[in-house]
Amino acid sequence: MEFELKILGSSSATPSYNRNHTAQILTIGNQLNLIDCGEGTQMQLMRYKVKHQRISNIFISHLHGDHFFGLFGLLSTMHLQQRTTPLTIFGPPGLADILTLQFKYSNTHYNFKLDFQELDTTVHQQIFEDKYITVHTLPMQHRVSCCGFLFREKPKPRHLVKAKLPDFLSPPQLVRLKNGEDILDETGNILVRNEDVTSEPSRSRSYAYCSDTRYKEDIIPYIKGVDLLYHEATFLDNMLERAVYTYHSTAKQAATLALKAEVKRLLIGHFSARYKDLTPLLEEAKAVFDNTHLALEGKTIGILE
Amino acid sequence: MEFELKILGSSSATPSYNRNHTAQILTIGNQLNLIDCGEGTQMQLMRYKVKHQRISNIFISHLHGDHFFGLFGLLSTMHLQQRTTPLTIFGPPGLADILTLQFKYSNTHYNFKLDFQELDTTVHQQIFEDKYITVHTLPMQHRVSCCGFLFREKPKPRHLVKAKLPDFLSPPQLVRLKNGEDILDETGNILVRNEDVTSEPSRSRSYAYCSDTRYKEDIIPYIKGVDLLYHEATFLDNMLERAVYTYHSTAKQAATLALKAEVKRLLIGHFSARYKDLTPLLEEAKAVFDNTHLALEGKTIGILE
Description:
Two copies of one chain form a homodimer.
Chain A: E1 3-9, E2 23-28, E3 31-37, H1 41-47, E4 55-59, H2 65-68, H3 71-80, E5 87-91, H4 95-106, E6 114-118, E7 126-129, E8 133-139, E9 147-153, E10 159-160, H5 171-178, E11 183-184, E12 190-192, H6 194-197, E13 198-199, E14 206-210, H7 220-223, E15 228-232, H8 240-245, H9 251-260, E16 266-269, H10 279-288, E17 292-294, E18 300-302
Parallel strand pairs in A: 3-4, 4-5, 5-6, 14-15, 15-16, 16-17
Antiparallel strand pairs in A: 1-2, 1-18, 2-3, 7-8, 8-9, 9-14, 10-13, 11-12
Helix pairs in contact in A: 9-10
């Protein structure tokens, strides 16, 4: 199953050097999740040939413009292009108010069902679950209510080793084997031992999105060992004071968190407009955590099972 | 003095074929006026090297997203880039509500004074005046409150013919001559006859912006003879029924209005996403009014004095 992140934008505050505002697409199987939606996101989706009609969930971290001003236009385009599939938007308090007021003045009644899920950004809790994944909030520390998101695949079924499977097993028995059960006979004795005919399940992949926030170690238990951590790195560490003052992080801090949380890979983004060349940010982070990459527009990061 | 229109976008409803949503910059002297502000306008301003800090007035025709969803981001960027110059926004009822709610949730307090001027879109009236120009509303007929805008230079002073000017004239007397007065002696007799020492003033230029609207002849008296008319032409005339139903116009209708209003030049825009090639729209309009042009992104139309 596909588990892939696509970067649509990674500029903080003001768009600059052709870097667009924050937006990412996380594809898990057939499901597209949009994470944040800065201005111009619908154009970026077109540019990278991502079909917006396939997006089923939108996650908005906070109500600063560079993270959600593209939402109005995207919803409007979905409506004008005859979307009928329901859409769920997860966001902080206020987002529903803002959208409702705009619908009122534009006299808009969408063709599709729009479900708002208002988030408590101060806690770590599950906000979404389907057959394959769960999504939890990650409390951030920013100037307004803000949370990150942790996407995690659910535990997967064990693999059946076909060469070792007896012929007499029925489909329900195969399901039980996949779920880790032994197959018993009528008297309760083990007929087929699970470990003899199955192998370990594929691992469950995970992605943590942390933006915008001050450096914040108390989220480490939640993101421990994730396959991919996106963490904002608005500034270089020589601007640490400014980072603290504006409730942002430095590249060094992002890498330190990645190191302490023992994540597999780090992606930094939300770059300040003062950095035309992003190499110093990358180098600063890599000095602490080598497997760091820049969240450049158009970049795709697939995570293998 | 410069009188120049720059097209930043001309796509209707949904952005398509790299055509952005409606936005235009009308430069009159040192003053930049932004007319409508679709999503991505701040990026288009950057692309065409228009300094947003020089914009003093923003005119929003109506509250459909393709005409104002870029406003939030542009204002935010003005604020983040330390604007201190006051800004006036002219727009229909509701715009102030929408912006105020966003400021509340993003906890934003702008560095610069933002003045909202709520428009009555149903009447033709003056909404702005300075030393050089006036701006009037043009009532449109659309699905929500909507008006166009008529920009007109004020009558200009007469030119002094230096070779014919007597030496003895004082600066106040020269001003009176420019204003068309004769210069009298102490007894009230004509000392210098105006027409002997001055020539006709430069003409006053004008620009009418009409979007979005059904074909509407009752605005002809207001736009009669303007130098440049921008009129929406969402559809070809073979979709007239759809144009009427959606409160839009066809290219033929735009040209018919230009012809009847005896304007000097017509610019058509607000193209439906169904037209990848815009040539048929241009040809349809030119068949009725030859001096028609497409409102293509990046195009600049200067009007000479």
